[in-house]
Every structure is written in structure tokens, then in C-alpha cells.
């Protein structure tokens, strides 16, 4: 058996795209808190951005907090 040495060059990976149309969405929803055994209102903030290379929208949860009464 003989071993072959090959030189492989990999293209540089581009940074994560920032998107052309980034915006934020806020949703309020009622969820069950298992520790307190009670339902509570939560505010969810999402970052929405277009990923041009994939041709899709990206929705990423940025914040999840309890709504104060």
C-alpha cells in the first residue's frame, strides 16, 4: 500500500449575513409556569432577518421575560 498526500484548499467561509431587511417582533402569550403552578403572561421578542444565500427568513428569539402587572 502506498499513501498519497494531497493538498486541499477550502474556500473561506463568509461571516453570517446581516440581512437586508432585519426587524423585531414582539409577542405576548400566556404560558404555564411549572415551578409556580400558575399561568403567566410572557413577552417574547424575535429578531427577523432575510438570509439571502438561503432564500429564507430567519426568526431568532432574542428576549423572553415575564410581563409585570
Could you walk me through the main structural features you see in this protein, from its secondary elements to its overall organization?
With 69 residues, this protein is mainly beta. The chain is 0% helix and 52% strand. It has a domain at 23-66. It has strands at residues 23-33, 38-51, 56-66. Strands 1-2-3 form a three-stranded antiparallel β-sheet, with no helix packed on it. It starts with 22 loop residues before the first strand and ends with a strand. The relative contact order is 0.25.
Task: Furnish the topology, listing elements before pairings.
Elements: E1 23-33, E2 38-51, E3 56-66
Antiparallel strand pairs: 1-2, 2-3
Query: Low-confidence segments, ≥5 residues, pLDDT <50?
Result: none
Into which percentage range does the β-strand content fall?
over 45%
Shape: elongated
Order of helices and strands: EEE
Number of helices: 0
Strand order of the largest sheet: 1-2-3
Mean pLDDT: 81
Radius of gyration: 22 Å
Distance between the termini: 75 Å
* Helical coverage, percent range: under 10%
Helix/sheet category = mainly beta
Q: Got a strand count? A: 3
Largest sheet: 3 strands, antiparallel
Amino acid at each position: 500500500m502506498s499513501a498519497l498526500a494531497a493538498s486541499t484548499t477550502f474556500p473561506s467561509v463568509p461571516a453570517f449575513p446581516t440581512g437586508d431587511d432585519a426587524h423585531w417582533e414582539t409577542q405576548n402569550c400566556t404560558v404555564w409556569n411549572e415551578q409556580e403552578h400558575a399561568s403567566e403572561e410572557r413577552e417574547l421578542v424575535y429578531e427577523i432577518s432575510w438570509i439571502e444565500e438561503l432564500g429564507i427568513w430567519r426568526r431568532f428569539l432574542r428576549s423572553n421575560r415575564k410581563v409585570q402587572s
